[in-house]
Design brief:
By secondary structure, this protein is of the alpha+beta class. Helices cover about 40% and strands about 25% of the residues. The chain has one domain.
């Protein structure tokens, strides 16, 4: 059984999620994010939120979600 991310009526298989995380990590890296950096972001509770968290950790950076309140 493969891991699947379920969000509302969407199902995202692990390979698709991992591809999205890799694209996000590449983007963060092009912006200059390095190991030990902090990546602050403000997103809704949706798959993109997890993609940024995993992408930051993939680079050795620390994800820091910002609450819009």
């Amino acid at each position: 059984m493969a891991a699947t991310l379920v969000f509302a009526d969407r199902k995202i298989v692990w390979t698709a999620f991992d591809d999205a995380v890799q694209r996000a990590a590449s983007g963060l890296e092009r912006l200059g994010v390095e190991e030990g950096d902090v990546v602050c972001f403000m997103l809704r509770n949706e798959p993109a939120f997890l993609e940024v968290v995993f992408a930051a950790r993939r680079l050795g950076a620390y994800p820091c979600p910002i609450n819009w309140h």
